[in-house]
């Protein structure tokens, strides 16, 4: 595909055939493979074994037509349409219907009692000011009540599951690559949620990059996704890439995964042909720990082509545990795709190469904290996130000066590609993030290519070794005490193993201001087998402080232990350090020692 954004080396037939949007690709598949399955949803709410709801390409296309026609009668081109639909086929219909109508979709979620979600939903709706709110009949009353309660009444509600068929279809809308497709709101883990402006060209480019990187095949691959569709990774893995590439998606509800993570691998096992999926790193350790030998023995995983792993640091020990557990089922570590990305680039920036296990290196922890990756035999293991997906440019820069750094030096990850978004919705200072100027040692400017004005500053720390990208953490998450840098994921790993009462994958380490400088604080959940009455907080805190002091020469100011499920998380299950820090400052996080 050649466009103003650059060129991809290999893309699915839909792109090669000239489709420049997801609705155009959907129309193509409805014509050429209309009776084949396009999307399915496994619902576990009534039946613990799951009840399947599915749509063929022709059925999906017809329902998208109906929603698009209905929307066009009630909104003008370019208006925002917020998607407040629960996980399932209706979400896919609503999102694609808004795009086909020429509207700007805003993928969100229905009102729910999960901590922090109501406030975030209200903030996003106020920011994007939608003309329409797409929901379903089952949630229409709750959505209307929520809008009234939050003083957001005004948008017209449309229940997409009861929209009548369109006799003549929607008015044709020419969707150009530079037209805005949707606003992808960030998780808010490091800032107030902001809507990334994603064009049709951006999402088509990244979906094509994912198709190539994950080894997808039109018509035969199945994408299995439990991530929420309003999440950037869920939207691309569970919707955009399958629709663009012409292969089916099998969706699960995130809560169904959390309650019983084995369902994820069981769903993959049930697919007849090649399977791809993706999840944050914690999910791999979680499903390995919760799957019994009897459950494991029933799985067939030799047809898995790629398992994406991103949105948080990838730990080598987690991969060891996961692949050792499921190797007897035909699952090989070469299926693992360490993927680095962020919403500002749709989702994917770099990925480890197809067909081989991600490269791993061992570096000196102290030297890494000082800003240099030095290979050693015993130290911190880093897992490679490969190179720029689909030809994207990835560089490491000094976050203060914008100077390009050589291999081996730690700095901020900067990226450029046809998938990089256009800025933040309504934010005039977006150029500081999306159009940064990278400078060579001789003072010359480094061309970002792809017709872009500048580079995307990711806010993440990384280092390149022989061209491969390794992730070090977020700049704002760095714990700096007495002038020494500490990566929170290193501290958290030590804390997890400091005492048996600490639940794995539930630890957050961060720093707070003190009278004489920054202080380190640790928050963790107690293990489920330990009751609140049995928990000896003083003993746990002493073990944590001793372990962290011994491993990292860092004095922990306070250790807080919460109950299971009480540490703040994002929609994809990732621990939110910033939310922990904010609640600690407010005094609402709990007591510690």
From TrEMBL:
Keyword annotations from UniProtKB, A to Z: Fatty acid metabolism, Ligase, Lipid metabolism
A GO molecular-function descriptor: adenylyltransferase activity
All copies of domain AMP-binding enzyme C-terminal, residue ranges: 477-589
InterPro entries associated with the record: AMP-bd_C (IPR025110), AMP-bd_C_sf (IPR045851), AMP-dep_synth/lig_dom (IPR000873), ANL_N_sf (IPR042099), FAAL/FAAC (IPR040097)
BP-aspect Gene Ontology terms: Actinobacterium-type cell wall biogenesis; fatty acid biosynthetic process
Alphabetized Pfam families for the sequence: AMP-binding, AMP-dom_DIP2-like
SUPFAM superfamilies: Acetyl-CoA synthetase-like
Coiled coil: none
Residues of the AMP-dependent synthetase/ligase domain: 27-425
An annotated GO cellular component: plasma membrane
Similarity comment: family membership: Belongs to the ATP-dependent AMP-binding enzyme family.
Full protein name: Uncharacterized protein
């Amino acid at each position: 595909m050649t466009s103003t954004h650059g060129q991809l080396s290999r893309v699915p037939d839909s792109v090669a055939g000239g489709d420049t949007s997801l609705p155009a690709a959907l129309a193509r598949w409805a014509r050429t493979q209309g009776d084949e399955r396009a999307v399915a949803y496994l619902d576990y709410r009534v039946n613990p074994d799951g009840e399947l709801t599915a749509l063929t390409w022709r059925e999906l296309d017809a329902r998208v037509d109906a929603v698009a026609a209905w929307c066009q009668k009630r909104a003008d081109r370019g208006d925002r349409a917020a998607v407040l639909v629960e996980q399932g086929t209706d979400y896919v219909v609503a999102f694609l219907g808004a795009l086909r109508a020429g509207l700007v979709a805003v993928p969100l979620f229905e009102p729910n009692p999960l901590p922090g979600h109501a406030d975030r939903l209200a903030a996003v709706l106020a920011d994007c000011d939608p003309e329409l709110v797409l929901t379903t009949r089952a949630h229409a009353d709750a959505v209307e009540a929520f809008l009234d309660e939050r003083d957001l009444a005004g948008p017209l509600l449309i229940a997409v599951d009861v929209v009548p068929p369109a006799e003549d279809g929607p008015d044709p809308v020419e969707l150009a690559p530079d037209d805005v497709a949707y606003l992808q709101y960030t998780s808010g883990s490091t800032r107030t949620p902001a809507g990334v402006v994603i064009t049709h060209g951006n999402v088509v480019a990244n979906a094509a990059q994912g198709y190539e990187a994950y080894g997808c095949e039109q018509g035969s691959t199945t994408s299995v996704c439990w991530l929420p569709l309003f999440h950037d990774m869920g939207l691309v893995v569970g919707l955009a890439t399958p629709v663009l590439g012409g292969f089916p998606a099998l969706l699960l509800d995130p809560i169904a995964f959390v309650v019983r993570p084995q369902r994820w691998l069981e769903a993959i096992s049930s697919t007849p042909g090649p399977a791809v999926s993706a999840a944050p790193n914690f999910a791999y350790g979680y499903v390995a720990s919760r799957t019994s030998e009897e459950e494991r023995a029933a799985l067939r995983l030799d047809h898995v082509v790629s398992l994406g792993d991103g949105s948080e640091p990838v730990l080598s020990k987690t991969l060891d545990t996961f692949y050792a557990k499921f190797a007897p089922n035909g699952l090989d570590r070469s299926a693992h795709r360490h993927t680095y990305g962020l919403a500002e680039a749709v989702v994917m920036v770099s990925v480890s190469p197809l067909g081989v296990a991600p490269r791993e290196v061992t570096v000196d922890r102290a030297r890494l904290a000082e800003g240099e990756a030095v290979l050693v035999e015993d130290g911190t293991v880093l897992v490679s996130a490969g190179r720029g997906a689909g030809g994207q440019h990835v560089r490491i820069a000094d976050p203060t000066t914008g100077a390009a750094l050589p291999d081996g030096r730690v700095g901020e990850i900067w990226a450029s590609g046809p998938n990089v978004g256009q800025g933040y919705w309504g934010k005039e200072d977006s150029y500081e993030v999306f159009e940064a100027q990278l400078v060579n040692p001789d003072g010359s400017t480094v061309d970002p290519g792809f017709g872009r004005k500048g580079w995307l500053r990711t806010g993440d720390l990384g280092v390149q070794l022989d061209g491969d990208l390794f992730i070090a953490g977020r700049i704002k998450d760095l714990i700096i005490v007495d002038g020494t840098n500490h990566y929170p994921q290193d501290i958290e790993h030590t804390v997890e193993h400091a005492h048996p009462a600490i639940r794995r994958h539930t630890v957050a380490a961060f720093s707070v201001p003190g009278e004489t400088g920054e202080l380190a604080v640790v928050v963790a959940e107690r293990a489920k087998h330990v009751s609140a009455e049995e928990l000896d907080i003083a003993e746990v805190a002493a073990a944590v402080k001793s372990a962290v002091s011994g491993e990292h020469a860092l004095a922990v100011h306070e250790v807080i232990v919460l109950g299971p499920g009480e540490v703040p998380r994002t929609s994809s299950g990732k621990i939110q350090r910033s939310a922990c820090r904010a609640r600690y400052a407010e005094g609402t996080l709990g007591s510690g020692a």
